[in-house]
Amino acid sequence: AVCGSAAHAAWFERTEDGIMGTRIAVDLWADDKALADLALDRVFNEMRRIDQSMSTYKPDSEVSRVNAAAAQAPVVISPELFDLLATAVEYSRITDGAFDITYASVGFMYDFRSRIKPTDKAIAAALPAVNYRFLELDKGRRTIRFARPGVRIDLGGIAKGHAVDRGIAILQGLKIEHASVTAGGDTRIIGDRKGAPWVVGIRHPDDKTKVIARIPLVDTAISTSGDYERYFDENGVRYHHIIDPASGHSASKVRSATILANTATRTDGLSKTAFVLGAEKAIEIYDRLGDVDAILVTPEGKVLYTKGLEAP
Prior knowledge:
Number of helices: 9
Radius of gyration: 20 Å
Oligomer: single chain
Mean pLDDT: 93
Distance between the termini: 33 Å
Structural class: alpha+beta
Helix content: 25-40%
Number of strands: 15
Low-confidence stretches: none
Strand content: 25-35%
Order of helices and strands: EEHHEHHHEEHEEEEEEEEHHHEE
Shape: globular
């Protein structure tokens, strides 16, 4: 959708489903349609490139090749993937292991669309391979090796945020100063909305037509994770895509977590923490970091805020 004519500055928007298994949306202010089309093409091409590199659903992706070979020998990887893996390990340390990309050692056995979950026996057999300390990163050789068999990684908890940041970098390189890039629940904003802040709503966990808060934003990133994104219910239990690395089961200590920080990589990577640790412990971590704020919804429906935000 294009608002305004091609002859003068206007807002331009493009949305596409299916990249990284989610909806990508870009909204930007550009001096003319030619610049807008160039910017949008470059951002969406970058999203597709990252999807091709990091998707575990693509057997020829770089991450799939790592999963197939890294338990046997060190695998040389791209600088981009190495840096993102190093960031993931950093977030594992920050969160005391609540964020752990090796959750995939168990997580690959879930199929939420087909309502498939692993048995307790299968989880118990795979769980010993879940530990971010099994990722051996050699910066000099730019390699990764898994310290034991059975380890798998999945960047689903951080790659979309990284892709959003890459999209923003492309727009900034083209001197675009007002824009929003979204991939699923991850958004990053540059500038304001030409005289007003961007307003992002946080949906109610049980009703997608309702919001629990609306937040005015300028020059920031925001990510929301919820147990309502990819899930199925069975016998009164909700099985969803945020897996507790300690148990191999869906984490359930909050219903929704919204994180604000400077980059979408950071907000995406830290938005799963509260599901594993619980709201109070997660807020302690967010407050300690100093550059992160959060809005959390507990299983009882209580809404909690970090000290940098005020409840409405």
